[in-house]
Amino acid sequence: MTTASKPSRKVIPIASDHSADKLRPTYEAQHKIYPRNISGIFKNWRWIMIWVTQIVFYGTLWLMWNDRQAMLLDVSTHRFYIFGLVLYPQDLIYLVIILIISALALFLFTAVAGRLWCGFSCPQSVYTEIFLWMERKIEGDRAARMRLDSMPFGFRKFYKKFLKHAAWIGFSMATGFTFLGYFSPVRDLLDNIIQYRLSPWETFWICFYGFATYGNAGFLREQVCRHMCPYARFQSAMFDNDTLIVTYDQARGEPRSGRSRSVDAKKEGLGDCIDCSFCVQVCPVGIDIRNGLQYECISCGLCVDACNSIMDKMQYPRGLIRFSTQNGVEKHWSQREIIRKILRPRVLIYSGLLILLSLGLVFSLSIRPAFKVDVNRDRGVMSRMAPGGMVENVYQIQLTNVTESQHAYRLSVHGLQGVSIASETEFTVNPASERLIAVRLQIADGSIRRGTHPIMFDVESVNSKEHVKQKSSFYMP
User: Fold this and answer.
1) Roughly what angle, to the nearest 10 degrees, separates helices 123-139 and 142-150?
2) Per-residue pLDDT at 28 exceeds 80
3) Which domains does the chain have, with CATH numbers?
């Protein structure tokens, strides 16, 4: 069985006061990781999540809702469509709450079961696994890929590398196109590509996101998880001794030693680990879980599948490497005892906050008015004289119809005796549109004292009888 290559240190001679030169390491050279393919329950779950995430990502933007794209952050019209929900820039609070809920969910899952997001749903892990699948199909298994990289450059090597990178680039460009399709209507975007009418900015973003996918999933891979992702650095603040993590049962596995199946390990005083390094070879970040939990571990569980397959061949019990907790391994807890400890204070706090915020968001959206009203005084003039001895104030009212059907609205004003509307009082606003309306209020000169007087604009939807009120003021010179 091929063993995993170990990182080496580059050394240079340095001068010293002694006659003999000394060697000092300057940096640790990073060797390319060739993850070995494996089958098992966690590998299957990874591919299930890959299919789910990619079907959602690539499929959602092609869904239609009310004759428009179901999910669209339309930059040109400043509207965010989420199926039947239409959000405007002034609805930014809803997007903030959604982000807070997502962050709390990440904290909750991490406190319960470690970096499951990283191992099964993170775009970096998902696209790296897809790129590795293409690499295996074109270049072969782990040993074949290592032989191909070590051989001198020739036609066969060029042919396989060309096919691999062509597949990577094609997939990356499709990913970039899909990503941009959430910000620009995807059908118009596709027509622009077919007819060579793509704008410079659209071309830039497709290429930029495609290049990011190609570079991160094809070349950087585990380096993103090790050095670029901040989540790996602060995860320790969310872990405790009752967090489910990938663990190696050292008491059972040590001392490790290679052996045949016929050797009686207990009689020889050996642990169950046969030191095959299979768990290292399948690890996408190249760590040895037998050295303890490391921040690079993404909790993908592939080492569990690898170790279990070896335990089956050796006819040893499974679970030498398994998902457990630090307390569970040290105190030899049963699965039931481990699960019981999951419901601890921090998990309950995260769960409570997550439920409250989610319910608050749903309730807020359910009582959200079907239209918005903004009232601004005309800044050009405080007041003016109108025919018939009337004093007039002018206002700009912005009506926003947040539904996707046309609505009619009726305007009235209250709070000041004798004030009347000298302009139109009924208006129609198109679906998911805004309309700016000039409104003139008049009152007889001398009928009220000088200064500002509070008034209330009342806009009623003729269709739903829903009211929205906005405060303002009337100025008498």
Assistant:
1) 70
2) no
3) 236-336 (no CATH), 371-476 (2.60.40.10)
